[in-house]
Write a structure and sequence with these properties.
The chain is of the alpha/beta class. The chain folds into two domains: 38 residues, no CATH class; 138 residues, Rossmann fold (3-Layer(aba) Sandwich). The protein is built from five helices and nine strands, in the order H-H-E-H-E-E-H-E-H-E-E-E-E-E. The strands form two sheets. Strands 2-1-3-4-8-5-9 form a seven-stranded mixed beta sheet. Strands 6-7 form a two-stranded antiparallel sheet. The longest helix is centred in the first third of the chain and has 17 residues. It is globular and about 35 Å long.
């Protein structure tokens, strides 16, 4: 693997830059290539958007009595705040999802879009149920549609745009959950308040 992005141009703040560069280099030499990619991605693109409650509440009924793994969330995330009310929720690092797959029933998350294919592959290879929130724009990619067909995945589509929060700005998106829940139909449309259409 090669570092394709020049570290010299990655940061604006000098002190933060030194710390972040050091983390990337350490992860690279330890072989934690996923962490390297994630950290480089944060410098190059800004695709981290925080999920609003109106996209989590409609799926609560699908998650009853399940132990939920949250690979990309913290105690500040809406997924954690909402799902912990009725479920056991565990923070499991993305790179440990397969190794720790006996400790949870389902993966639920809004993953970084830039790594969608790698994340879909990993979730599929856990042989566990999963629900991944994705922008509807992804359905324009042939390679994304191929993943859906190859893995026999299903879609829950939301009927209107929803405002996501970003550190720099808010952005409206139409989105969908990509999932493999056996109990649900192949295609389902919900509105953000949870009413089925």
């Amino acid at each position: 693997m090669t570092l394709q992005v020049s570290l010299r141009n990655l940061c604006y703040s000098r002190k933060k830059c030194i710390v972040k560069k050091a983390k990337i280099v350490i992860d690279f030499f330890r072989g934690n290539y996923y962490n390297v990619n994630m950290n480089l991605n944060k410098f190059v693109t800004n695709d981290e958007y925080y999920t609003p409650e109106c996209l989590i509440n409609p799926i609560i009924d699908f998650l009853q009595d399940k132990i939920i793994a949250l690979p990309f969330d913290t105690v500040e995330s809406n997924y954690y705040k909402i799902l912990k009310r009725k479920n056991i929720v565990k923070f499991i690092k993305y790179e440990n999802l397969i190794k720790e797959k006996e400790s949870y029933d389902i993966i639920v998350t809004n993953p970084p879009f830039s790594f969608k294919y790698e994340i879909i592959d990993t979730c599929y290879n856990t042989q566990k149920e999963f629900m991944l929130l994705m922008p509807t724009l992804a359905l324009n990619y042939n390679s994304y549609l191929k993943k859906i067909l190859d893995y026999k995945l299903k879609i829950i589509l939301f009927s209107k745009k929803v405002k996501f929060l970003n550190k720099k700005k808010d952005a409206p998106f139409t989105c969908h959950y990509l999932h493999n829940l056996y109990a649900l139909n192949d295609f389902l449309i919900l509105n953000p308040e949870g009413e089925e259409k």
